[in-house]
Write a structure and sequence with these properties.
Elements (H helix, E strand, L loop, with lengths): L21 H16 L5 H13 L3 H5 L12 H10 L2 E4 L5 E3 L9 E5 L5 E4 L9 E7 L5 E4 L5 E8 L5 E4 L10 E7 L5 E4 L3 H8 L2
Parallel strand pairs: 1-3, 2-4, 3-5, 4-6, 5-9, 6-10, 7-9, 8-10
């Protein structure tokens, strides 16, 4: 008679060892952006934590990124409202940074630091229902370029040109229902450029 042994029970997953989902990562990303908007962490630390959040594999790895932040007590409706007001922060760093030209959700406030690699911010394929978007652009070493669709207008009165200057190649023919892009910040050494799509970009937009 063959002896029968009980099947081994699965080992319990240690605390924090559960695998994180895309929604788990996005929730931490939103919380980090809120913390930056509130002045709890600076831009450099935000960028570092966002990179770790997007590559985190477990709940424990995600928890370590927010352990020193206060626990939110808002309702889901209030939380969504805070996320919608959280700024999108782009930092050029060494390799540059960009948002667009694909479809992406436009917040009411964007902060772009050109750094050494530069920043490109392209609104041409976005569907923005906001009446106004504030783009806080700092050209720094390599500059910031903002591309807006035809029919959108930019208010550049809040930009300090700095040494790099401000280049505005947009028209003033605003279509109904389009947002106003209000630029603030400074040109720095690299300058700030705001324009409509160029010929090459228009060909890509017209392609099926």
């Amino acid at each position: 008679m063959t002896a029968q042994f009980p099947e081994p029970s699965p080992r319990p997953v240690p605390p924090g060892g559960l695998r994180a989902s895309h929604d788990d990562r996005e929730a931490v990303v939103d919380r980090l952006r809120d913390a930056a908007a509130e002045g709890r962490i600076d831009v450099d630390e935000l960028e570092s934590r966002l990179e770790l959040a997007l590559t985190a594999r477990t709940h424990g790895e995600l928890a370590s990124l927010t352990d020193d932040l206060p626990t939110p007590h808002s309702s889901p409706a209030t939380s969504s409202s805070l996320v919608s007001r959280s700024p999108l922060v782009l930092k050029g760093g060494m390799l540059g940074a960009s948002r667009g030209p694909g479809r992406w959700e436009v917040p009411g406030h964007v902060i772009a630091h050109g750094g050494v690699g530069g920043v490109n911010l392209d609104f041409t394929r976005t569907e923005c229902r906001l009446t106004e978007v504030v783009v806080e652009a700092y050209g720094e070493t390599s500059g910031v370029t903002v591309v807006i669709p035809d029919g959108w207008v930019a208010d550049t009165g809040g930009i300090d040109p700095g040494l790099g200057g401000l280049t505005d190649r947009t028209t003033f023919d605003r279509l109904p229902g389009t947002p106003l892009i209000r630029l603030t910040g400074s040109g720095g050494m690299g300058g700030v450029v705001v324009r409509h799509p160029n010929k090459r970009e228009r060909r890509k937009l017209d392609a099926p």
